[in-house]
Design goal:
Blueprint: H1 3-27, E1 32-34, E2 36-37, E3 41-45, E4 50-51, E5 55-56, E6 59-63, E7 71-77, E8 80-85, E9 96-98, E10 101-103, E11 110-112, E12 117-119, E13 128-129, E14 131-134, E15 138-142
Parallel strand pairs: 1-6
Antiparallel strand pairs: 2-3, 3-15, 4-5, 6-7, 7-8, 8-13, 9-10, 10-11, 11-12, 14-15
Keywords: 2Fe-2S, Iron, Iron-sulfur, Metal-binding
Organism: Flavipsychrobacter stenotrophus
Pfam families: Rieske (PF00355)
């Protein structure tokens, strides 16, 4: 194979892989919910984790106009949730969620669904908040303190 054909084939393969990856990722639906801001935190309905296709969503992203960054809430068990501020601890950029990982688009830091640093340059874990299941199938994210 000559150089020109090799470059053409390589470029076509790279473009195809990129398009396929984008297409597959677009099939995964991300659920955004607007939380109800309360005096000490933010609440949302547990039903936000329900999905028509496979029963339960792995996570939802909670937004509110008074929050500078969204909060990603992972459902780790039936009544166990983890809430993570989606702000990179390296340079303060908003993170992107992809399954069980949160990734910084600026420098590639990665965090797991518990907020632990998986890949530098970030040196600190994400800020996490305690989550409680309260009356009427509501989740309450306590913004005053860090999760233990």
């Amino acid at each position: 194979m000559d150089r020109k054909a090799f470059i053409k084939t390589s470029c076509l393969a790279c473009t195809s892989v990129t398009l396929l990856t984008t297409l597959i990722q677009s099939c995964v639906s991300v659920k955004y919910v607007t939380g109800n801001l309360e005096s000490n935190g933010i609440s949302l309905d547990v039903l936000a984790f329900e999905s028509n296709k496979n029963g339960h969503r792995e996570y939802v992203i909670v937004r509110h106009e008074d929050l500078k960054f969204p909060i990603c809430v992972y459902r780790t068990a039936d009544d166990n949730y983890t809430a993570l501020l989606m702000q990179c601890t390296h340079q303060g950029v908003e993170l992107q969620v992809s399954g069980n990982r949160l990734t910084c688009p600026a420098h590639g830091s990665e965090f797991d669904n518990k907020g632990k640093v998986m890949q530098a340059p970030a040196g600190e874990d994400l800020r996490s908040f305690p989550v409680a299941v309260v009356a009427n199938n509501r989740l309450f994210i306590d913004l005053r303190k860090k999760a233990s």
